[in-house]
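Service request form, structural biology core

Requester: graduate student, group of Dr. S.
Request type: structure prediction, single chain
Budget code: on file
Notes: please return the result as structure tokens.

Sequence provided:
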Amino acid sequence: MSDNAFTPSSRASARRARRRRARRRGVLVLGGGAAVLVWGASALVGALTSVGEGGVAQAASVQASIEQRPARTTSDGTTPRVAALSAAAGSLAGGESVTITGTGLAGVTRVSFGTADAEIAEARDDAVTVIAPSAVDYVAGEVPVTVHAASVPVKGTSTLRYSYEARTGVDRQLQYALAHWDDYNDEQWGDYNPIGGDCMNFVSQTLVARGWAQRDDWYHDGASSTETWRFVPTFDAWITEHARELGVTRLGLDQRDQVKLGDLVVFDWDADGTLDHIQLVSDLDRNADGSVAIRMAGHNLDSNYRDLDHALTVEHPGSTAHFWSLPDA
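Core staff response, request fulfilled:
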């Protein structure tokens, strides 16, 4: 369906999304795609202020010292040290509870899986339990796990590794969506933009990747497709009719706290009762006030982490939307 009210290039949209996700993870993304982690900024500023013309050289020395020294000892004289992870691998979508064992870990302040920060659930002297974050862009592979106490790496951290794997239907759906939001798989599924929009076709593809089986009333055989596959209003009517059979639940915007990764967002841009667009949920962030920020992947305005609230209020003021919450897969 058409989505032309806000049409920056896919490349610019991708850059903004990378910067937004990087900011959440403490990474500064530069124009060429390079990433620089900044540690001990206050020490660097202090060094520059106190040494005059030799400030740059001394600041670099201070920075190196901060990055290389192990975490300070705890109040009982124990040097924090990590030993092992309770799990060596997990889902692309994250969410698993992972325990890091060791000694002197009660003061751990940060745990990162690659460039993504984990939520610390509990920190005790002998162990830190965290909730694994999702893999960056849902790409499978191994990442280092880094543990910090008072912004200083804990000894033994360099030995910790964690592998992200596509274990569930949701993993495979998100993996497909993030691989093809700007790289159309049109040899297999075609491109419906010339005849009105590719958003529904793309979402149908992700549902197949999730594990949904094609059927007589919802299919694409490579040469032709049903309206339920490619046309938003027809798909929404179909999924409504078969909601019990498919195990899906319709949610309103006021139920966004129940939305999960991989769920669908259906839009009525003009609030005229005719549905115009569809995307899938690619990222969820809980804000400090308890509200949930929802980001989406989709075609037409090709996007990987499009912000729902921005779409509803800035791109299409006065528009509305609803969700389809899908059963776990």
